[in-house]
């Protein structure tokens, strides 16, 4: 196990709320909640300031619940463009210390200082203090920093000294610090995994680290062994610098998806199909922008009552980024799976995965199928160009205009690419 | 400084010069009423957050008419921390 690496994990505390407070001094010191639009039924807490957290407000709580626990909370809508600007500014600071910066969502990043720490005489603590101070003075927000020899423990460190903290997790104190913490504090141990582990009496990270390998494998499968290795501090994954040519946040696109919580419950297949087309169209458009084609399409719906998600996926006959092919497959997947007599849909999502480069030779055929695809591809290209020049609403589906409830949905909202998997 | 209780973020028109290296230097601040304030000197330039009015950007400490003040470049706009005159009860 190589313990000589110097990995920092920087986590900007309560990011959205901190940015709002940095931008609007009148909000400082108040219990602040950045929340979604309740009328559009996106009414959850996206981020709460520390003042609100102290009063019991939690991330992802419904806004009406948040108001119950904290009646005088100030609720503001999110401004993603602003957060993006702060996220970029923070990253510019990190780049002054190393070129190996791996963003993990808009507010977190790993920095590998192994090769550059000699410029600061090997003083990691001083560098961390310098970064924290610069983020505070240049952006007006605080960040917590964790230092370890691997990414997992570095993140553990930044998670455990909030806000504005610094924690070193080194080989001589790791067992004391990390192993005594609840197993759910480890990256990639979510509530479901934690529940399974607790059921076996594995309550702490240390118990997971020392547990019998075959038992963990039986319980959680192969990913369980990876998580166990994380618990033991055996994570050799490198800090992968971001490739701006590929995408803004992530390194490699594994899938492209879009989903929306509808402002109304979808009660029939016709409307469901229309929403799927709306989502699928933006998915296909993004695939084309990225120069990729998908081999698999999946569609999911969220039940309006139980909030349970049902999804199905199917392969496309040929890799495609053609709007009509992706949308019609997604629509048939969703509608065939859903019985609208008993259930309504609250949220709909479309995802294209198993991606391959879109450029490449095309095998023509005698039946004229490929010729038809070429025509559809040309049509998509024209629509993309029109939208690029005149905006997303320059060309719209007729269904959006016939149903006024759909015209308000904008699938191309400004959004961050959030990290999907560490294992990628 | 009698009576100044608070400041607010105020976007202003600025005439600036950018050299071939990409270094930008503000020359004149033009207020809303058209008054032009020549910048005598740029004393300092750094990325900073405005504690008084909120916002972040490249902060120029400039001297105008013998007094130093902050001018922020929040690409592509400029703002100052404008004084808010107090309101007295009638």
Structure characteristics:
heterodimer; A: 424 residues; alpha+beta; Dna Ligase, domain 1; 5-stranded mixed β-sheet; 16 helices; 12 strands; B: 90 residues; mainly beta; 7-stranded antiparallel β-sheet
Give the gist of this structure.
Chain A is of the alpha+beta class. Chain A contains 16 helices and twelve strands.
Question: How is this fold's topology laid out?
Answer:
The complex is a heterodimer of chains A (424) and B (90).
Chain A lengths: L6 E6 L2 H9 L8 E4 L9 E4 L1 H5 L8 H7 L4 E3 L3 H15 L6 E3 L4 E5 L11 H16 L3 E6 L2 H9 L6 E4 L4 H4 L13 H9 L5 H6 L2 H8 L1 H10 L23 E12 L2 H22 L1 E12 L5 E12 L2 H15 L7 E13 L11 H22 L7 H5 L1 H4 L17
Helix pairs in contact in A: 4-5, 10-11, 12-13
Chain B lengths: L5 E13 L5 E7 L5 E3 L2 E9 L6 E9 L2 E8 L2 E8 L6
Antiparallel strand pairs in B: 1-2, 1-7, 2-3, 4-5, 5-6, 6-7
Written description of the protein model:
- The complex is a heterodimer of chains A (424) and B (90).
- Helix content of chain A is 39%, strand content 20%.
- Chain A has 424 residues and is of the alpha+beta class.
- Chain A has three domains: 9-151, MutS, DNA mismatch repair protein, domain I (3-Layer(aba) Sandwich); 179-231, DNA polymerase, domain 1 (Orthogonal Bundle), CATH 1.10.150.20; 255-407, Dna Ligase, domain 1 (2-Layer Sandwich).
- In chain A, the strands form three sheets. In chain A, strands 5-6-1-7-8 form a five-stranded mixed beta sheet.
- In chain A, a hairpin with a 4-residue loop joins strand 5 and strand 6 (108-112).
- In chain A, helix 12 packs antiparallel against helix 13.
- Chain A is globular and about 70 Å long.
- Mean pLDDT of chain A is 85; it is low at 245-251 and 413-418.
- By secondary structure, chain B is mostly beta strands.
- Chain B has one domain (6-84).
- Chain B has no helices and seven strands.
- Chain B has strands at residues 6-18, 24-30, 36-38, 41-49, 56-64, 67-74, 77-84.
- In chain B, strands 3-2-1-7-6-5-4 form a seven-stranded antiparallel beta sheet, with no helix packed on it.
- In chain B, 22% of the residues are buried.
- Classes of the chains: A alpha+beta (424), B mainly beta (90).
- Chain A binds chain B through residues 22-25, 86, 89, 136-140, and chain B through 46-56.
